[in-house]
Specification:
Strand order of the largest sheet: 2-8-7-6-5-3-4
Radius of gyration: 21 Å
Order of helices and strands: HHEHHEHEHEHEHEEEHHHEHEEEH
Distance between the termini: 53 Å
Length: 385
């Protein structure tokens, strides 16, 4: 019998994040600092709106692009918070930010088109590019640059076949952010080379050093950028599975076409809850951001003091300490830490080869849990040569 499976899919590697999470789930008394899952409940008024929508019998399909009132709220939010000009007709509501990423690549790439992906980065970009027929071109970002994309690295990676650049900032796993000036230098090359951008801004509300700047807000960039965002991280709504993409109308039209065939429409209950989140949830976001910021400062200080050098991340809820001095791979370090001290973190190479020698540690957990985990990490380090 012939092989029933796609060669492209068979060659994809499973997520390194989920692998360590699955390992930890089979063990008892594990403190998991591995998954980017807010430890806050979805604010009650948002949950209540979802419940109310069910009580009112709003269990039908919405339009493919999403509820118009939600797209209007997203348009207003993007304009007020990040100076983005996208209209409701230029917005697609998706099943999480991950679907938006996938659909954007499918809508924009032809076979052989190259997509520049700065690494370390979220694990979905590379496989989604491959499944869309594109060719991922990885750029290794460096700790000395605080894991930011620099103009020389971008220029060196561009070829005649390059079509898109992924800008994953604030960054998962490093927590790196890029300032307006740094983004402008990159945007100048993108315009010069007539490229398009997928800007993953799912952590835009979790910026700790001034307001988040979207590359699409820079002159001449909105018309060549797909902005991906969502509700999972900012509003602690991971299980509601709701994200969105904002892009020029001709791109969104094609993304909606793909979305309608594979999804139909995003969850109706989640969409009504998201309207409430955008209308009345910004104080909740502020409180959660302040809690994350406190944890961030605490964790960076403690890791540096115990000999795990860690540059200061200004976004998301991750730190990326360097463990290279211990002479073992990041996977071995994370594996032994899990087995010996029951603390789960993610090896840095799960986010690209240049992540080798680092760990991703999430601070989407309480200070109390972080303190216990740090004590166990210290015990583990004390056993190493």
């Amino acid at each position: 019998m012939r092989n029933p499976l796609s060669k492209t899919v068979m060659e994809l590697q499973p997520s390194g994040i989920r692998r360590f999470f699955d390992m930890a789930s089979t063990m008892e008394n594990v403190i998991s600092l591995g998954v980017g899952e807010p430890d806050f409940d979805t604010p009650w008024h948002i949950r209540e709106e979802g419940i109310y929508s069910l009580e009112q019998g709003r269990t039908y399909y919405t339009s493919n692009a999403g509820l118009l009132p939600l797209r209007q709220e997203i348009s207003r939010y993007l304009g007020e918070r990040f100076d983005l000009p996208y209209t409701p007709e230029e917005i697609l509501v998706t099943v999480g930010g991950s679907e938006a990423i996938d659909v954007a690549f499918r809508a924009m790439l032809d076979p052989g088109d190259e997509v520049i992906i700065p690494e370390p980065c979220f694990v979905s970009y590379l496989p989604c590019v491959k499944m869309a027929g594109g060719v991922p071109v990885e750029i290794a970002l460096e700790e000395k640059d605080q894991f930011k994309l620099t103009p020389p690295k971008l220029r060196q990676a561009v070829t005649d076949r390059t079509k898109m650049v992924v800008l994953p900032f604030p960054n998962n796993p490093t927590g790196a952010v890029m300032t307006a000036q740094e983004l402008q230098a990159v945007a100048d090359i993108i315009k010069e080379k007539d490229l398009f951008v997928l800007s993953d801004e799912i952590y835009s509300e979790l910026s700790y050093h001034g307001r988040h700047v979207s590359v699409a807000s820079l002159p001449g960039m909105a018309e060549r950028t797909v902005v991906v965002n969502g509700f999972s991280k900012s509003f602690a709504m991971t299980g509601w599975r709701l994200g969105y993409a904002a892009a020029p109308r001709e791109i969104i039209r094609q993304m909606v076409k793909i979305h309608q065939y594979i999804i139909m429409s995003s969850p109706t209950t989640s969409q009504y809850a998201a309207i409430e989140a955008l209308k009345n949830g910004m104080e909740d976001v502020g409180r959660m951001r302040e809690a994350y910021n406190q944890r961030r400062r605490f964790l960076v200080k403690e890791l540096n003091e115990m000999g795990l050098p860690c540059f200061e991340p200004y976004g998301a809820f991750y730190v990326f300490p360097n463990i290279s001095r211990f002479g073992m791979s990041s996977e071995e370090f994370a594996g032994r830490l899990l087995q010996e001290q029951r603390v789960a973190v993610v090896p840095g190479d799960a986010f690209g080869k240049c992540g080798e020698g680092f760990l991703r540690i999430s601070y989407a957990y309480s200070i109390e849990n972080l303190k216990v985990a740090l004590e166990k990490i210290q015990k583990f380090i004390d056993t190493l040569p």
